[in-house]
Amino acid sequence: MGKLLLVSTAILVTALSASSAQAQGSIRIFGGYSYLRPSLTQTETFVCSAPPCPVPPQPPDLRVTSNPNLNGWEVSATMKLIPFIGITADFSGHTGGALGQSSANYHTYLFGPELRLGRPISPFAHFLLGGAHVSGSNATVSAFPYNTVLGFKDTAFASAIGGGIDLSVLPFIALRPIQIDLLTTRFHSSTQNQPRISAGLVLHF
Fold first, then answer.
1. Which of 50, 87, 109, 147 has the smallest set of CB atoms within 10 Å of its CB?
2. What is residue 129's three-state secondary structure?
Protein backbone atom coordinates (compact mmCIF):
# COMPACT_ATOMS: atom_id res chain seq x y z
CA MET A 1 0.00 0.00 0.00
CA GLY A 2 2.85 2.35 0.87
CA LYS A 3 4.64 1.59 -2.41
CA LEU A 4 1.43 2.18 -4.37
CA LEU A 5 0.93 5.54 -2.62
CA LEU A 6 4.53 6.49 -3.31
CA VAL A 7 4.25 5.55 -7.00
CA SER A 8 0.93 7.39 -7.32
CA THR A 9 2.40 10.49 -5.68
CA ALA A 10 5.42 10.37 -8.00
CA ILE A 11 3.17 10.08 -11.05
CA LEU A 12 1.02 13.01 -9.87
CA VAL A 13 4.03 15.22 -9.18
CA THR A 14 5.51 14.35 -12.58
CA ALA A 15 2.22 15.17 -14.32
CA LEU A 16 1.86 18.49 -12.49
CA SER A 17 5.47 19.41 -13.27
CA ALA A 18 4.96 18.62 -16.97
CA SER A 19 1.73 20.62 -17.01
CA SER A 20 3.42 23.56 -15.31
CA ALA A 21 6.35 23.46 -17.73
CA GLN A 22 3.97 23.37 -20.67
CA ALA A 23 1.94 26.28 -19.33
CA GLN A 24 5.00 28.39 -18.50
CA GLY A 25 5.49 31.09 -21.10
CA SER A 26 1.84 31.02 -22.24
CA ILE A 27 1.50 34.68 -21.15
CA ARG A 28 4.20 37.32 -21.59
CA ILE A 29 3.99 40.86 -20.25
CA PHE A 30 6.54 43.40 -21.49
CA GLY A 31 7.27 46.88 -20.19
CA GLY A 32 10.09 49.29 -20.85
CA TYR A 33 11.56 52.38 -22.46
CA SER A 34 10.65 53.32 -26.01
CA TYR A 35 12.01 55.81 -28.56
CA LEU A 36 9.98 57.18 -31.48
CA ARG A 37 10.87 59.55 -34.31
CA PRO A 38 7.51 60.37 -35.87
CA SER A 39 6.55 62.56 -38.77
CA LEU A 40 4.38 65.32 -37.24
CA THR A 41 2.41 67.87 -39.23
CA GLN A 42 1.34 71.01 -37.40
CA THR A 43 -1.02 73.75 -38.52
CA GLU A 44 0.61 77.18 -38.52
CA THR A 45 -1.95 79.99 -38.09
CA PHE A 46 -0.99 83.66 -38.43
CA VAL A 47 -2.80 86.12 -36.19
CA CYS A 48 -2.28 89.87 -36.54
CA SER A 49 -0.93 91.31 -33.29
CA ALA A 50 -0.45 94.95 -34.28
CA PRO A 51 -3.56 96.53 -35.86
CA PRO A 52 -4.10 98.10 -38.29
CA CYS A 53 -3.04 94.95 -40.11
CA PRO A 54 -1.49 94.91 -43.56
CA VAL A 55 -3.55 93.90 -46.59
CA PRO A 56 -4.36 91.06 -46.96
CA PRO A 57 -5.28 90.82 -43.23
CA GLN A 58 -3.21 87.69 -42.60
CA PRO A 59 -1.40 84.96 -44.53
CA PRO A 60 -3.22 81.66 -45.07
CA ASP A 61 -2.71 78.75 -42.67
CA LEU A 62 0.29 76.55 -43.40
CA ARG A 63 1.10 72.93 -42.56
CA VAL A 64 4.63 72.38 -41.31
CA THR A 65 6.13 68.90 -40.91
CA SER A 66 8.89 68.01 -38.47
CA ASN A 67 10.54 64.83 -37.17
CA PRO A 68 11.11 65.28 -33.43
CA ASN A 69 12.80 62.80 -31.10
CA LEU A 70 10.20 61.51 -28.61
CA ASN A 71 10.87 59.40 -25.52
CA GLY A 72 8.35 57.30 -23.65
CA TRP A 73 7.13 53.84 -22.69
CA GLU A 74 5.73 50.70 -24.24
CA VAL A 75 3.77 47.86 -22.62
CA SER A 76 2.39 44.73 -24.24
CA ALA A 77 0.79 41.44 -23.31
CA THR A 78 0.99 38.30 -25.44
CA MET A 79 -1.03 35.12 -24.96
CA LYS A 80 0.13 31.92 -26.64
CA LEU A 81 -2.67 30.31 -28.65
CA ILE A 82 -0.82 27.37 -30.21
CA PRO A 83 2.89 26.48 -30.33
CA PHE A 84 4.87 29.38 -31.81
CA ILE A 85 1.76 31.57 -32.36
CA GLY A 86 0.26 34.13 -29.98
CA ILE A 87 -1.93 37.21 -29.94
CA THR A 88 -0.52 40.56 -28.73
CA ALA A 89 -2.03 43.75 -27.32
CA ASP A 90 0.48 46.62 -27.50
CA PHE A 91 0.26 50.16 -26.09
CA SER A 92 2.80 52.98 -26.15
CA GLY A 93 3.11 56.65 -25.25
CA HIS A 94 5.78 59.17 -26.25
CA THR A 95 6.32 62.83 -25.44
CA GLY A 96 8.81 65.52 -26.32
CA GLY A 97 9.39 68.88 -27.94
CA ALA A 98 8.04 69.48 -31.42
CA LEU A 99 8.29 72.42 -33.79
CA GLY A 100 8.95 75.77 -32.19
CA GLN A 101 7.99 75.83 -28.52
CA SER A 102 5.22 73.25 -28.78
CA SER A 103 5.26 69.78 -27.22
CA ALA A 104 3.88 66.55 -28.67
CA ASN A 105 2.01 63.62 -27.10
CA TYR A 106 1.86 60.46 -29.22
CA HIS A 107 -0.04 57.27 -28.27
CA THR A 108 -0.64 53.97 -30.10
CA TYR A 109 -3.10 51.11 -29.49
CA LEU A 110 -2.23 47.99 -31.50
CA PHE A 111 -3.32 44.34 -31.67
CA GLY A 112 -2.25 41.37 -33.78
CA PRO A 113 -0.50 38.00 -34.15
CA GLU A 114 3.00 37.16 -32.98
CA LEU A 115 5.36 34.39 -34.11
CA ARG A 116 7.88 33.25 -31.47
CA LEU A 117 10.64 30.64 -31.55
CA GLY A 118 12.67 28.84 -28.91
CA ARG A 119 13.86 29.35 -25.34
CA PRO A 120 15.94 30.59 -23.48
CA ILE A 121 16.85 32.74 -26.51
CA SER A 122 13.52 33.65 -28.03
CA PRO A 123 13.32 35.73 -31.23
CA PHE A 124 9.88 36.94 -32.26
CA ALA A 125 8.08 38.86 -34.99
CA HIS A 126 4.66 40.47 -35.04
CA PHE A 127 2.22 42.36 -37.25
CA LEU A 128 -0.06 44.74 -35.35
CA LEU A 129 -3.04 46.86 -36.37
CA GLY A 130 -4.91 49.58 -34.52
CA GLY A 131 -4.85 53.32 -34.06
CA ALA A 132 -2.67 56.27 -33.10
CA HIS A 133 -3.52 59.58 -31.47
CA VAL A 134 -1.32 62.66 -31.53
CA SER A 135 -1.84 66.00 -29.84
CA GLY A 136 0.29 69.01 -29.08
CA SER A 137 0.22 72.06 -26.92
CA ASN A 138 -0.32 75.33 -28.74
CA ALA A 139 2.74 77.52 -29.00
CA THR A 140 2.74 81.18 -29.98
CA VAL A 141 5.72 82.66 -31.78
CA SER A 142 5.79 86.43 -32.20
CA ALA A 143 6.97 87.88 -35.49
CA PHE A 144 5.77 91.46 -36.02
CA PRO A 145 3.09 92.14 -37.10
CA TYR A 146 1.85 88.54 -36.63
CA ASN A 147 1.74 85.97 -33.88
CA THR A 148 2.24 82.46 -35.26
CA VAL A 149 0.17 79.84 -33.45
CA LEU A 150 1.18 76.19 -33.80
CA GLY A 151 -1.20 73.38 -32.88
CA PHE A 152 -2.18 69.85 -33.84
CA LYS A 153 -4.50 67.03 -32.79
CA ASP A 154 -5.52 63.97 -34.78
CA THR A 155 -6.43 60.27 -34.60
CA ALA A 156 -5.66 57.82 -37.39
CA PHE A 157 -5.20 54.20 -38.42
CA ALA A 158 -1.84 52.68 -37.46
CA SER A 159 0.07 49.46 -38.02
CA ALA A 160 3.41 48.11 -36.85
CA ILE A 161 5.57 45.36 -38.29
CA GLY A 162 8.73 44.29 -36.51
CA GLY A 163 10.18 42.06 -33.86
CA GLY A 164 12.91 41.55 -31.34
CA ILE A 165 14.52 39.03 -29.04
CA ASP A 166 13.95 37.93 -25.43
CA LEU A 167 16.72 36.44 -23.26
CA SER A 168 15.63 34.40 -20.22
CA VAL A 169 17.58 35.42 -17.11
CA LEU A 170 15.40 33.94 -14.33
CA PRO A 171 12.60 31.33 -14.29
CA PHE A 172 9.87 33.91 -14.90
CA ILE A 173 11.86 36.93 -16.10
CA ALA A 174 13.42 37.70 -19.46
CA LEU A 175 15.40 40.65 -20.80
CA ARG A 176 14.32 42.26 -24.06
CA PRO A 177 17.47 44.10 -25.18
CA ILE A 178 15.86 45.38 -28.36
CA GLN A 179 12.57 45.51 -30.22
CA ILE A 180 12.35 47.37 -33.52
CA ASP A 181 9.10 48.27 -35.28
CA LEU A 182 8.22 50.17 -38.41
CA LEU A 183 5.19 52.17 -37.31
CA THR A 184 2.93 53.28 -40.16
CA THR A 185 0.19 55.88 -39.68
CA ARG A 186 -2.37 57.66 -41.85
CA PHE A 187 -2.60 61.17 -40.43
CA HIS A 188 -4.01 63.88 -42.72
CA SER A 189 -4.91 61.29 -45.41
CA SER A 190 -1.24 60.57 -46.14
CA THR A 191 1.13 57.82 -45.06
CA GLN A 192 3.87 58.27 -42.46
CA ASN A 193 6.53 55.66 -41.68
CA GLN A 194 8.56 56.02 -38.52
CA PRO A 195 10.90 53.82 -36.46
CA ARG A 196 10.04 52.75 -32.90
CA ILE A 197 12.78 51.16 -30.76
CA SER A 198 12.08 49.67 -27.33
CA ALA A 199 13.84 47.71 -24.59
CA GLY A 200 12.85 46.42 -21.15
CA LEU A 201 11.83 43.43 -19.05
CA VAL A 202 9.43 40.57 -19.74
CA LEU A 203 7.45 38.53 -17.22
CA HIS A 204 6.31 35.15 -18.52
CA PHE A 205 3.93 32.71 -16.83
1. 50
2. strand
